[in-house]
Predict the 3D structure of the following.
Amino acid sequence: MSWPHVDYNTDLWMKLPDAWETAPWKGPKQWARHMSEAWWGDSDLEPTRKDLKALAATLQACAEQFPGSHPGFDVYLHLPDPRLMPLPVYVAAVEADGDREETLRALVTTEDPYLVEKPLVEDFTTELLGTGLRALRYTQTEEDRTIVAGVRYAWRVEEAGCDVVVVVAAPDPRRVLGAMDDVDAFAGRISVPV
């Protein structure tokens, strides 16, 4: 089965390493320091030592915690400004199975028991993947009833025998909604080699 490739904008996005053994960094801490310096260096802002350390600590926590939320998915961080909290975006392919429409609706989890309201599901078309579904959804955590905003995308790629899934979620609805244009553009740059 083919795996999705994202030709992402490196001014807005960074990809978490898939495996530290093959990465040029010894681990999350070294990667986070490097990326913090690079991200601040590419911005028009003058960081303090505290700013550099704060972003490095945040990125290290992201690298250590986010992959566990969706094991087996690639993790990208949306970070247009080094002062923002990185927004995780998860990308994967699963083997295509069953009726296309039913499967895509299930992949955008339109029947999630933790939904606060019915999700807004609509067709979403990209040049590289064709037409799939996008669902804007709000769920509530079981533990503390926090509202989590999320967007899920799913496409069937018949030629590759897979369904592509993109998951975005954060407990800050403003952060998710504010990133929607960038996330839509990111989704538009996903392809699956056949």
Summary: The chain is about 30% helix and 30% strand. The first strand starts at residue 5 and ends at 6. The helical segments are 28-42, 49-65, 100-107, 173-178, 180-187. The two ends are 9 Å apart (CA to CA).
